[in-house]
Amino acid sequence: MNQKTxxxxxxxxxxxxxxxxxxxGAIRNWVRLQDSYRAYYFVADxxxxxxxxxxxxxxxxxxxxxxxxxxxxxxxxxxxxxFVQSEVKEHAELHLLLSMITPLPxxxxxxxxxxxxxxxxxxxxxxxxxxGYPLLQTADIIVYRANFVPVGEDQxxxxxxxxxxVRRFNNFYGDVFPEPQPLFTESPKVPxxxxxxxSKSYGNTIPLSAPADEIRALVMTMFTDPNRIRRKDPGNxxxxxxxxxxxxxxxxxxxxxxxxxxxxxxxxxxxxKKLLAxxxxxxxxxxxxxxxxxxxxxxxxxxxLREGNRSARERAAETLEQVRRAMKIDYPEFR
Length: 335
Ligand code: TRP
Hints:
The chain is mainly alpha-helical and 335 residues long. The chain has 15 helices and 5 strands.
């Protein structure tokens, strides 16, 4: 069997139940990668606090819901380590040590810093912790000496910073860290029910493990070709949001047939919604059933995390020993 010699690390802030955008954008890739890499996946609960520090009561439930869906989607605790960031204190120690060598302007010019402050005006993000967000992310990555980091394009500037920090560290103290490379795995664009990007903040999501009737009800609310007003009007699948979902869930034959029957007004939007809903219900059945089993026995989630925390700590502790030695702050006398 293939020896796993390369390390993959990725994390997500706990935002609760996984929706189809999260699934096609990230989790499905994570599931694939667990077979060929030594993979570490975690819930970034400290990162959640960088913006939600005033209102943290949802973090615990969101952590559970996220991990339950990751397991339902196919992450296998026997193949990868799934853990909670705040349970591996080495992230925090490394973050502190990295803060010593990080020039302030490097953090100030990370574009997400100003962008997020401008977008989330209702939160005061002019904090030490928020400025340090991408540095904590750097610690998350390099504490596992990760080679690859599967992320979306939105994280490119954070990975850029991570590589700069690694070069600076290795320059001062010798080669401890490999430079982590982003893995921008191609993933389909997933629109929301209204055609904008699927996002919790737009309220246009479909939960990955939603009950069948919820999927049916949500599909009925989907936007279709806005120019197709009457049943007998021919439609244009190219500008129909519903059709995007056919491309994600239906086989090629069905996609071709729907395309034709929509353009020729043989199938109406309501019929098409019913068709799509049943295809999605069927497609998502294995994930939904695994999630239902997990809800009947939630200890599965905590057990997976307990073991993941342990194995993550093991790798992270090794790294910190190397780091302390390199930075001359190790005291063998105390061991
Ligand atoms: N910033 C990432 C996001 O918002 C979450 C994250 C935190 C992360 N630490 C990480 C991603 C380390 C990859 C690696 O999605």
